[in-house]
Write a structure and sequence with these properties.
- The chain has 275 residues and is mainly α.
- The protein has one domain.
- The longest helix is centred in the first third of the chain and has 37 residues.
């Protein structure tokens, strides 16, 4: 029997969790964000070159993009409780006329842009899930919530916001509408699971499902991407999702690494759940 079954609440060390989150945030700010926006810049320049447009992305454009992502994360944290996943997904899907998983990504999004659309939709879903989880915790629906867990959730929320902004910057630069829809394939599963969440470990399991799909998707899509810039962008984000997974396993009292459903450690992470 796993510790997830035995314990309904977080039983780890808040000090250790705080340290993990601090390291996650420091690595993200110092290494991931610069690499991610460099990837965005390179990808945009590459697509402009394919269209015969000679207009290199300036350092100012790069900095503005990175700043917008950080501001977006702050704005999401400032607005308070998020709407329910179902309502948010329905409203946003209607803007893109996406009615089911078969219609996503839209047919006009091809090649690397199709991958970018799927990645953005997964990041959007993670944003709404973490926001909804934080709102439920604030409303007292999850029992006692250690501050360290709230800090981790807020940090992960901000990082997923940055990731979505990066992919949407690429889409917008190619004349495509930004993807604001949550992933249509996974949204119903997350909705159903969230409705059953009553404690912190239940919320951690829900977040783990999302992070596992995201990490597996980034890992699998690397071989599908055509441009080196797109591969670099995807590869800069995937390790962050893996860090989220490791911390969530710790919150659940389990081995903090890739493992089977039974909890047996794996030498290599699986791509079986890739979107």
């Amino acid at each position: 029997m796993s510790r997830r079954t035995k314990n309904a609440q977080f039983v780890g060390s808040e000090r250790e969790l705080t340290s993990m989150t601090s390291e996650l945030d420091e690595l993200n700010n110092d290494v991931v964000v610069p690499s991610m926006w460099a990837g965005v810049s390179n990808m945009i320049d590459g697509m402009r070159g394919e269209r015969g447009i000679v207009r290199p992305t300036s350092r100012r454009t790069f900095l503005v993009g990175a700043g917008a992502a950080m501001a977006g994360g702050a704005a999401l944290m400032a607005v308070g409780a998020a709407p329910g996943l179902a309502g948010a997904a329905t409203r946003r899907e209607s803007r893109l006329h996406v009615t089911d998983a078969a219609a996503f990504p839209p047919a006009s999004y091809k090649g690397d842009l199709a991958v970018a659309a799927v990645a953005a939709s997964l990041e959007n879903l993670a944003v709404f899930a973490y926001k909804s989880g934080l709102a439920a915790a604030t409303a007292g629906k999850l029992g006692s919530v250690p501050p360290a867990i709230g800090t981790f959730a807020t940090t992960a929320l901000s990082q997923h916001t940055q990731h979505a902004a990066a992919w949407n910057a690429v889409l917008a630069s190619s004349g495509k509408a930004k993807i604001t829809v949550t992933n249509p394939t996974l949204t119903p599963t997350i909705q159903a699971a969230f409705a059953k969440v009553t404690d912190i470990t239940g919320l951690a399991q829900l977040a783990l499902t999302l992070e596992t799909v995201a990490a597996a998707t980034y890992q699998a899509e690397t071989s599908m991407l055509k441009s080196k810039a797109a591969i670099g962008l995807s590869a800069s984000i995937e390790p962050v999702e893996m860090q989220h997974i490791a911390i969530l396993y710790y919150v659940m009292g389990m081995y903090p690494g890739s493992q089977t459903s039974a909890g047996s450690p794996l030498a290599f992470s699986s791509t079986a759940s890739a979107a």
